[in-house]
Amino acid sequence: MHAVVRPGSEFFPDERWRATSVEVSRWGNTIRIRSRTERGPRIVIGFYGESEPYVDYDIQLPRRVQLELDDYKSHTVINGLEGGLRFNTYKGDAEVSEFRGHFDLETYKGNIRLELVDLTEPSTVETYRGEVDLRVRGDTSFRFEADLGRHAELDTDFELTTFARRREQRLLGQVGTGAGPLLRLKSYRGYFRLRR
After folding, report:
1. Are 184 and 132 in contact (CB under 8 A)?
2. How many CB atoms are located within 10 Å of the residue 74 CB?
3. DSSP assignment of 5-21
C-alpha cells in the first residue's frame, strides 16, 4: 500500500494535513485502512475556509477478495475484482472495471461507473442524488428492479415493466434470460444508466 496525504484546499491550506495519519489494522481475513486527522484547539475570527485533507491510496490486493470501502470525496478506481464489493461514498466517485461478483453500492451526490462481467449474487445500488452507470458485458443474466423517486431516472437498453405510485415509480426488467440474481436500484433524485 502507498498513501499520499495532501491539503484539502489550495485556496485555504492549513497545517492539518501534516497531522493526518494512516492506520492499517488486521483481524483474521480483514484488513482495515483508515485515515485520521488530529484536531487541535484553534481560535477563528472572521471567515475561515477549512477542508479535510485528501489521502490518495494505491492499494494492490488479490483478485478474489471481499472489499469494503467508506469514502469521503475521493476518486476510486478498482480493476478486475472478483468477489464482494461494499462501497459507500459521500460526494466521491468510483470507476469499477471487469467486475465479477456481487456488490452493495451507496452514494450521496457521487458518481459510480461499473463494468459488470458477471453478477453472482443479489446486489444493490442506492444513490440520493448521484449518477450510476452500469455497463453489462458478456452473457451475464439477472433480473433488476428500480424504485425511483419522482426526480430520479433510469435510462436502459433493456425492456421494462412500469408500476407507478403517487410520487414514485417501480420498474422491473431483466438482462439476458433473467435467470440470475436480483439487482435492486433505488434513488430519490439520482440518475441510473443500465446498458450493454
Report:
1. no
2. 18
3. EE-S-SSS--GGGGGEE
**pLDDT tens sequence across 125-147:** 999 999 999 999 988 999 999 99
Residue 43's pLDDT is 47
What is the dihedral sign for C-alpha 76, 112, 186, 151? positive
- pLDDT above 90 as % of the chain: 51
**DSSP-derived secondary structure for 118-139:** EE-S-EEEEESS-EEEEEE-TT
**What are the structural domain ranges in the chain?**
1-60, 62-196
DSSP state for residue 150 in the 8-state scheme = T
Amino acid making up residue 107: T
Give the pLDDT confidence score for residue 15 in this predicted structure: 65
Distance separating alpha carbons of residues 175 and 178, to the nearest angstrom: 6
> What ranges make up the beta strands (E) of 40-167?
54-58, 64-72, 75-79, 82-90, 93-108, 111-119, 123-127, 131-136, 142-149, 153-156, 160-164
The answer to whether residue 124 scores a pLDDT higher than 80 is yes
Lowest mean pLDDT among 8-12, 95-99, 184-188: 8-12
Say how many Å lie between the first and final Cα of the chain, rounded.
34
**Which residue matches cell numbers 472572521?**
46
